[in-house]
Write a structure and sequence with these properties.
Elements lengths: L6 E7 L5 E6 L5 E2 L6 E2 L3 H8 L13 E2 L10 E7 L12 E6 L3 H5 L4
Parallel strand pairs: 1-6, 4-7
Antiparallel strand pairs: 1-2, 2-7, 3-5
Keywords: Signal
Organism: Myotis myotis
GO cellular component, one term: external side of plasma membrane
């Protein structure tokens, strides 16, 4: 059964609102609720690991847990919002993590 629901990630970059928010993810991808900061340059690694790919360096970040290895997402959608301190996201199943050591130049270079 193909999972058509993509892992939807929202990356909010602002002066006061540097955060990485997960708006929706399939059941096979487990993001833990917590306040663990993640380095901005590791966002592509989080996306790759969530889809079941390997990365060059180990990511010892507790926000992403091992899910079902046989039912991985087929796509990752990332949206970058510049110049906004905070978005009014609906409460509920949204999980956000603080970004550390991130600059707009780094975010603009994010490629998969």
């Amino acid at each position: 059964m193909a999972v058509l629901v993509a892992l939807l990630s929202l990356l909010v970059a602002g002066v006061l609102g540097n955060e990485f928010s997960i708006l929706r993810s399939p059941g096979s991808v487990v993001f833990r609720d917590g306040n663990w900061p993640i380095p901005g340059e590791r966002i592509p690694d989080v996306a790759a690991l969530s889809m079941g790919f390997s990365v060059k360096e180990d990511l010892s970040w507790p926000g992403l847990a091992v899910g079902n290895l046989f039912h991985r997402p087929q796509a990752t959608v990332m949206v970058l919002v510049k110049g906004v301190d905070r978005l009014a996201l609906p409460p509920g199943s949204i999980i956000s993590y603080p970004l550390q050591d991130v600059s707009i130049a780094q975010i603009n270079r994010v490629r998969f």
